[in-house]
Structure formats: C-alpha cells, structure tokens
Write a structure and sequence with these properties.
This protein is of the alpha+beta class. The chain is built from 11 helices and 8 strands. A hairpin with an 8-residue loop joins strand 6 and strand 7 (205-216). It starts with 11 loop residues before the first helix and ends in a 20-residue tail after the last helix.
Length: 401
C-alpha cells in the first residue's frame, strides 16, 4: 500500500493510528456527537492540512482521505457539511489565510464542529455580477465600523451566527480598491433577515438589511481597502466547493436518472438513450476533472480553474434534470410539496424530479453567474484578451448609477 508522507513523519499509517486512537478514546455511539467533533478537531483530524492547534497537523491535504476512511468505517458522527458548507468551503480558508491568530482561534473550531453556522454577505441588488460595484458602506468610528446597506441571495442567513461581509470603506478610489472585508455578527440588532421564496417554494435564500451595524475593527480580515483581494480567496474556494464536490460515479444529479433508466425500461426511447449517454460521459469527465483539481489543491490555493468546474456543474445539472423530467413523462410534471419552508441546508439533489429541475435553475446564478465565469475562464485560464472596462480607473463615487 502506498503511504502518503507528511510533516514530521505523519504518514498515512500514523494518521490512521491517530484516528483509531480518537475512536478508542471517544467511542461513537457512547459519545455525544458534538463532544466527538470537538475532540476530533483538537486531535488535528478535522482538516489535517491546517496548522496544529487549528484542527490540523500541517500534513498534506491528500492525507485527509485516510483519516476520513477510518472514521467513516467506524460510523463516527460528521459535522453535517451541507448545513455548514459556507463556513467550511468559504469562510474557513479565508480566515486561515488572512485572519489574525486571535481570529483563527476564536472562529475555526466552532465553525468546523457546526456550533456556529456562517453565511456570505457579498451580493447586493445592484451588485451581483458586478460585485465590485457594491454600495454597502462601512464608516470608521474609533475601534468600530458602522455598516449600512443591503445584501441579497444570502443562503442560510436565517440560521447563521456569523457572516463574511464586504463593504465599501473608501468611495474616492476605483471600485476594486475601496472595499474592506469583515466578519459580521448576525445577532446584532441592526441585522434584519427577510426570506426570499424561490421557484421551488422554499426560502433557502434571504435578503439582509444592515442598519447601523457596529463591527469591531478586530473583526476585520486583511488590510483596510484590500477587501477585494481577500474576497478572491473566498470566491475561488466557493467555486471549487460548489463545482468540485467529491462524488462517486453516477453521484449527484446523474444518480436518479440512471436509476430510473434501469428500473423502468418502458420509458426508454432511442433519442433519450443518446442524450443520456452523452450526459453520462460529460458528468464522468466533470467528476474526474474535479478530482484532479482537488489534488492540485495539495500544493496551493484554488485558482481560476474552479470557475470551469462551476460552469460545468451548472450546465450538467440543468441538462440532466431536464432529461429526467422528460424521461418520467407525466410523473415528471408532479411536484411533491409547495409549502413555504426555510430549510436548514442547501439541497441540490433532494426530493423529487420536479424539485431537482427547478432548483437547478439557480446553479447558473449562485456562486458566480455563468456569464462572469466564462469571462474568468477566457481571460485567466485561456489567456484571451480581456473585455474593455471603462470604469477601471474611475473613482467609485463618480460611476453612473
């Protein structure tokens, strides 16, 4: 068996030994899940590539698979990644890279254990695709910042304890240079969360109004005015988190369609068979490409390649879910439940075919619109000329609105 080498001799076998020691000391089934998760974090087995004391051991990212295999086989509790995906996939890597030691110590442990849910206050009614044009203002007042503005399309804001927030701190410079990145307390009395009901009937998203919200300067990530660079770390990780999910063959949207095809031969037609085969191959290519990108993360932070994964994810989900509805015929037109609920987690694949078809429509908007991601791939991956940007050097306050 190949052994993954790691810092200070922490190879695969040593990490497996530590995982087994954790299981022996905190036996699943006899230990409260939260206690187990806290112990796992403290043992450095939460995300092994993080530094010691912050849930990791400074080991290679690839070594996490050995730990996960031991814990999964023992049916150890997990931290419900679907519920805390924004914290795990976006907030944590940003805090790790730009946070102070105090911020890392305060936020990372309860983030990973799921004790504190995170959301993302980036998009605004007038600043979605053009995120750098955001209007939410943060004004310095001593050791605090006073924030006023509105954010929109905020997943999990109704359950979140903390938010990653970008706000304009200097309107006199070009839009990309006058932004600062903060951690916002969602329990502040100036934070108001309102549900946004979606085409699925759920209110998974929210709009958030910020009125005189006071954020300590100690909750700023990065330098004042450098928020756009900090936000790029969040956005690159977000796209890998969405488009680069670790899936088995026929995982995700392809699974239910393939199962229906095998179980109900009376629904098959030559035309549907041809489309299914093409999409099956495309889904497998995307899955293997995502695996390659995750392996590349071992040597550094995610780059613009994640935008390509996110593009493929949105396209495939929409095409496969459309095929599933057609394959099911009249059954595909049925919809299980239109009750307005505010779910605790984001679910791309749950419920019935109608839900998957409707929910997939949002995949080409969330995490960066497909149009913007095509620009990123063209300019930063393929090296094509960039689009003309007449507002690049103009002060934000002088831009037309």
């Amino acid at each position: 068996m190949t052994t993954t080498t790691a810092k200070d001799g922490l190879g695969e076998e040593e990490l497996r030994r530590r995982a087994r020691a954790l299981l022996a000391a905190w036996e699943p089934g006899r230990t409260e899940p939260l206690e187990f998760l806290r112990a796992r974090f403290d043992a450095g087995l939460a995300w092994v590539h993080f530094p010691e004391g912050l849930g990791g051991l400074g080991a290679p990212r690839a070594a996490q698979a050995a730990v996960d295999a031991e814990l999964t086989a023992a049916r150890a509790p997990d931290n419900d990644p679907r519920r805390i995906g924004i914290g795990l996939g976006m907030a944590a890597p940003t805090i790790l890279r730009y946070g102070t030691e105090e911020q890392k110590s305060r936020f990372l442990r309860p983030l990973w254990t799921g004790e504190e849910v995170w959301c993302q206050l980036f998009s605004e009614p007038g600043a979605g695709s053009d995120l750098a044009g955001l209007r939410t203002r943060a004004v310095r007042d001593g050791d605090e910042w006073v924030v006023d503005g509105q954010k929109v399309w905020t997943s999990s804001a109704h359950t979140a304890r903390w938010a990653i927030l970008i706000a304009r701190t200097d309107p006199d410079v070009p839009k990309h240079r006058g932004i600062t990145y903060f951690v916002c307390d969602m329990t502040d009395p100036g934070v108001e969360v309102r549900p946004l009901r979606q085409i699925t009937g759920e209110a998974e998203f929210n709009e958030v109004f910020l009125s005189g919200v006071r954020i300590p300067d100690a909750h700023r990530l990065g330098e004042v005015g450098d928020g756009w660079r900090v936000a790029q770390t969040t956005l690159m990780n977000e796209r890998v988190a969405i488009g680069g999910q670790s899936l088995p063959r026929e995982g995700g949207m392809m699974g239910p369609v393939a199962a229906t095809w095998r179980e109900r031969p009376e629904l098959r037609t030559p035309e549907l068979h041809d489309r299914l085969m093409r999409l099956w191959v495309d889904a497998e290519v995307a899955r293997l490409t995502a695996e390659r990108v995750r392996q590349q993360l071992v040597s550094g932070a995610p780059g613009p390649e994640g935008s390509g994964l996110k593009l493929a994810f949105a396209r495939l989900n929409q095409q496969i879910s459309g095929l599933e509805v057609e394959l099911l015929g009249e059954d595909g037109l049925r919809y299980g439940d239109w009750t307005m609920v505010r779910p605790r987690s984001v679910d791309f694949y749950g419920r019935d075919a109608g839900y998957r078809y409707l929910r997939a429509k949002g995949n080409s908007i969330e995490g960066g619109t497909s149009e913007i991601l095509r620009n990123i791939v063209a300019e930063r991956v393929l090296g094509l000329p960039s689009e003309p940007r007449t507002d690049k050097d103009a002060a934000w306050k002088d831009l037309p609105r």
